[in-house]
Amino acid sequence: MAAAADPRRAFEAAAGILLDGIDIIALVLDPAGRVVLANRACEDVLGMPADKLLGRTPLELGFGPREACGDEATGDVEVCDTSGRVRLVAWTSRVLFAPDGAVSCVVATGTDVTDARANEQRLRESERRFRELAENVNDLVAELTGDGVFTYVNPRFETVLGFPPEHYLGSSLDRQLHPDDLDDVRRTVAELAEPGVSRQCVMRLARRGGGHCTLESVARAFPARDGTLRLAVIARDLSERTAAEAELRRADRLVTLGTFAAGVAHEINNPVGAILLGSEIALERERETAPQGHAAQALQRIADHARRCGAIVGSMLAFAAQGRSERRRHDVN
User: What is the pTM of this model?
Assistant: First the structure.
């Protein structure tokens, strides 16, 4: 009996050393649900020595279900240590049975995941804020793989281009581009080979119903959680700005034309005035000798047309002045 007991005690001692050397929390419960073995990691989480744990239920220690669980159970459990600090433990338990089918013991292991779960929560919150921001901005926001395949697009794509988001997911950017933009965009994507690199470009994407929409975009490379390289793209529809710029150029041409017309009008006004003056003088002399002669009639027509030209020039000058002229007294001396 003594010889048989020695190997068992040696095994138990070795198992105890092994359990104390790992960071995983380990508990062994008897069929009544009371702790019969606890390792050092369990002491660190609860803040009490192992001998204080023995004979107590997990519920009395601050964690674990009151009801009996199935043969295997997993889940996160809140654990409150002696200082009142709450930790989160990812728990797994398994029931071991004796040869006769009776419960032999329950082995429970756990890992402190407080910081990991907090990081996951912050990440989920960050992703939620990103989604809210990306789905409510007026710009087109997309995420692509390193080789240019869409993995996310915001609803603005459908508003501007007419295609639903599902149309883009899993599709290559090349399929949406205007053929003339393929080389430039491929060259830009090739330059985004390292995290933190950003590039700007103008590209034309297909619009539902035909035609293409011109977009001004900024792309930046970043590492995803799985370690792969992703591209974040923010694009803006240039249609309104292009139309506004065209209207501005047209207005600028009109201003230039008005300035030119004013100069031409001044130049025309001088010879027209001379023609009118000469025709009126000649008409006065002709009326003295032959008032109804052909020469008098011709001179009258010349004077009438000169006055008509003067009226046209006056209208051009008034239009070019844009209503800014004013009359005021002035001392000519």
Answer: 0.51
